[in-house]
Write a structure and sequence with these properties.
mainly alpha; 0% strand
Length: 108
């Protein structure tokens, strides 16, 4: 029984590692592309605005970007904390403990 549980732990750790690497790669690529896109968009916006209002446009744009960054951070943390490591293994161990307690009560 212990060997089976250890194999389950190893399989789950491998899956978690693959998921983590994929998530980091996708997040990095996405952030890079978003950064380039936003820089290009900001340059266009700033060039289109009348020079008298450029300071106001820069301030508003900065505020909007910071708010979006805060919302993105909260969303990312929510997803990260919702996942538990080795969930299936923990569930199997709980079942094993329950089974052992039942067997122990039956022998008494």
């Amino acid at each position: 029984m212990v060997e089976t549980r250890l194999q389950l732990v190893a399989v789950q750790l491998e899956q978690e590692k693959q998921t983590f690497v994929q998530l980091i790669s996708l997040a990095g690529t996405t952030l890079l592309l978003i950064t380039f896109g936003l820089m290009s968009l900001l340059v266009l916006i700033f060039l289109m605005v009348d020079p008298a209002y450029r300071i106001q446009v820069v301030a508003i744009t900065t505020a909007v970007l910071l708010i979006l960054a805060l919302l993105g951070t909260c969303w990312t943390l929510k997803i990260a904390y919702s996942k538990t490591l080795l969930a299936a293994t923990r569930e199997q161990l709980k079942q094993d403990v329950k089974q052992l307690k039942q067997n122990e009560d039956e022998t008494k």
